[in-house]
């Protein structure tokens, strides 16, 4: 099915937090059925190439009948191996130009930006979206940059030259304020992964997104 | 320059053990000038995608005027990004068939085998060589399988269907015995990386290799 690049409610999957690969696939199915618009596989833990491959394959299968694209974090080889819809890289990964060359023009490329300097250095013609964060302190990414807070988010949103999604400590309580910055979407990890009621967690976030978009 | 697949004296580079990327490049130049026939970049430590990329690029440049091929451990995307001569993968990496599809037929593919069962499962038509090990206990690979010792090495060498290189705890004292198994070459890490005299360490190992081949 054709995929759509809609950053509104972007789920970043942590396989461990989801209770393993099966739990992650189950989380994905429920979350996507209830409004998640993009999915990324990311693992901050020790996760072998084989695990990455089979986890990514399982997610691709789970999303095959949806318009929701699958992004692979950092591991360009895994994205190529399963023909993912996109790749998301950070400042310490393969350079953007090298990554674009590897994935070609038929996959989306997302790139993480943590401050003004990094934003000023973005090769806008090579990326499809940027992730801005962490907005608030996060417990799911060990090597995260310092939290930037709302004022800097608002500044970066004004300066960006492509769609963007905010990430880092985003939950039901701060989602509205973040979306009022004018950013296209919010990315969450623990606000969905590991929640007791995935459906309710997703629906609550979706409601915030829809309220913000209708304003 | 045309590369040759000669496993005789195969240097597996550990950037940390070499004192960083510059030290690793220096080690490589000296080792190759003194008889190393193949080089692999491997990092068992935390090493970002960016570090992998620039380390691999530097090694490729260092080997550009030689017949010595550069292999990249595990990270198929890095191998593609710098157009390395080959990839070496293990049992917990991307599957062999997936890796071969990603790298095509113009790069060599090495695959690690630690016991008889793994040897029996090798897709011989897809790999160019196998690494057999660890032969002896190793300090440079944390997730290494149990050391197999000489009797099992000898058995696996008899059963293999492609060239092979032995790895794991190999040094100047046990190199001759290992080569007497009939295996095509020896792979070393700490017998060269981090040695005070890289030239002497390499020449001593080369002498063992040449003695074994001339018998």
TrEMBL record, chains A, B:
Cofactor comment: Binds 1 Mg(2+) ion per subunit.
Binding residues annotated for 4-amino-2-methyl-5-(diphosphooxymethyl)pyrimidine, in chain numbering: 40-44, 73, 112, 141
Superkingdom of source: Bacteria
One Gene Ontology biological process: thiamine diphosphate biosynthetic process
Cofactor(s) for this UniProt protein: Mg(2+)
Alphabetical list of CDD domains matching this protein: TMP_TenI (cd00564)
GO molecular function: magnesium ion binding; thiamine-phosphate diphosphorylase activity
Binding of 2-[(2R,5Z)-2-carboxy-4-methylthiazol-5(2H)-ylidene]ethyl phosphate, residues: 138-140, 169, 189-190
Pathway participation: Cofactor biosynthesis; thiamine diphosphate biosynthesis; thiamine phosphate from 4-amino-2-methyl-5-diphosphomethylpyrimidine and 4-methyl-5-(2-phosphoethyl)-thiazole: step 1/1
Alphabetical list of Pfam families matching this protein: TMP-TENI
Alphabetical UniProt keywords: Magnesium, Metal-binding, Thiamine biosynthesis, Transferase
Family per record: Belongs to the thiamine-phosphate synthase family.
NCBIfam families, A to Z: thiE
Stated name of the protein: Thiamine-phosphate synthase
Annotated organism of origin: Gilliamella apicola
């Amino acid at each position: 099915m054709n995929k759509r690049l809609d950053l509104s409610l972007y789920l970043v999957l942590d396989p461990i937090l989801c209770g393993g690969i099966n739990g992650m696939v189950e989380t994905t199915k429920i979350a996507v059925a209830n409004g998640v618009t993009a999915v990324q596989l990311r693992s901050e833990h020790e996760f072998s190439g084989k695990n990455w491959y089979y986890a990514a394959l399982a997610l691709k299968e789970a999303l095959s009948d949806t318009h929701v694209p699958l992004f692979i974090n950092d591991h360009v080889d895994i994205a190529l191996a399963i023909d993912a819809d996109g790749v998301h890289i950070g400042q310490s990964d393969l350079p953007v130009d090298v990554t674009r060359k590897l994935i070609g023009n038929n996959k989306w490329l997302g790139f993480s930006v943590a401050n003004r300097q990094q934003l000023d250095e973005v090769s806008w013609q090579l990326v499809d979206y940027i992730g801005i964060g962490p907005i608030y302190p996060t417990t799911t990414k060990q090597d995260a940059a310092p939290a930037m807070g709302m004022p800097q988010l608002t500044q970066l949103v004004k300066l960006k030259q492509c769609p963007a999604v905010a990430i880092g400590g985003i939950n039901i309580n701060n989602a509205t304020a973040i979306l009022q910055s004018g950013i296209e979407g919010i990315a969450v990890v623990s606000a969905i992964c590991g929640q007791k009621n995935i459906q309710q967690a997703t629906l609550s976030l979706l409601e915030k997104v829809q309220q913000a978009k209708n304003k």
